[in-house]
Amino acid sequence: MNWDDLRYFLAVAREGQMLGAASRLGVSQARLSRHIAALEEAISTRLLERTPRGSTLTEDGAALFEVAERIEAEVLNGTARLRGRDTVSGTIRIGAPDGFGSAFLAPRLGRFRDAYPDLRVQLVPVPRSFSLSEREADLAIMVGRPKKGRLRVKKLVDYSLGLYASQDYLTRAGTPRSIDMLRSHTLIGYVDDLIYSPELNYTQEFVRDWRSDIAVSTAIGQFEAVRAGTGIGICHDFMASGVTGLTRLFPDMSVTRSYWIVWHENLRVARRVQAVVQLLDELVRDEREHFMHS
Q: For the chain, what is the domain count?
């Protein structure tokens, strides 16, 4: 079995399509196809199913994918040790919820560049259906601890959420003096059938019969709607606290959730993953007080 063939196979398995894999590797689709065909011939089995929508792993392909990732991780880690250096290089793809990813992490990506100038960082949103095993990301920030899968996990930080409204809205609609009065106000929340994690279904913890008059499927979108004076919404305190023109209603009412860093077992020895996990932990630790309402 040729290692180059395995490397090309890994790229297709991670991208889910030949065109994307060829672009990532900087080669033609024809060359990529030859390597995949050679690998399938060498082990006498079909590894990929080609469809108009892309390439999916067969059962044998999925099994080889796990083995190939372990081989890749061990090779990269061993090579770094043999060279006697601690360089962090390559590409790291981080999946994160839009609140954490856009509001907190994106403005601080320069820290990654400063610490590891040879590392390319990709920040992608975490969708409803998300797979670390298929390498949609090298590591992910998740709300709540995952309960299944061959994963390594590390708690990142607790964060709180509260009820917010803009001063413009309160001037126009009045300030609610009790939770019951919220029913007469415009409420902003998630699109119910697009809530991808039970941890995000927290409206009932504020108001038992919460009804979203304005529904937005992202935390950033909800925050912007609240800030624009559209209504009252539940916002992350680390996003809303200190923003001019926003008022936190019922300060004693909070919901607490947790962010976790998650990466696949096969990447446990990958230097770039270890380095980024450590740096993420440092970034949050430096600003931990902003994540909880006090």
A: 3
Distance CA 94, CA 92 (A): 6
Tell whether 179 and 221 lie within a shared domain.
yes
At 136, which CATH number?
3.40.190.10
Quick one: 163 and 48 in the same domain?
no
E strand or H helix at 257? strand 255-264
CA distances from 175 to 104, 164, 249, 269 (A): 29, 11, 9, 54
User: Residue 124: what residue type?
Assistant: V
pTM assigned to the model: 0.71
Residue pair 73/266 in contact (Cβ under 8 Å)? The answer is: yes
Question: Do residues 136 and 95 lie in contact, with contact meaning Cβ atoms separated by under 8 Å?
Answer: yes
> Do residues 232 and 176 lie in contact, with contact meaning Cβ atoms separated by under 8 Å?
yes
Helix H or strand E segment including 178: none
List Cβ neighbours of 142 (8 Å cut-off, separation of 6 or more).
97, 126, 197, 259, 260, 262
Q: What are 169's two structure tokens?
A: 């809205």
> What are 233's strand-pairing partners?
164, 188
Q: How far is the CA of 212 from the CAs of 86, 146, 190, in angstroms?
A: 51, 28, 7
As averages over each run of 10 residues, the pLDDT of the chain (294 residues) reads 83 84 86 90 89 84 84 68 65 91 94 91 75 70 82 91 97 95 94 81 88 93 97 96 94 94 77 89 91 89
pLDDT value for 70: 76
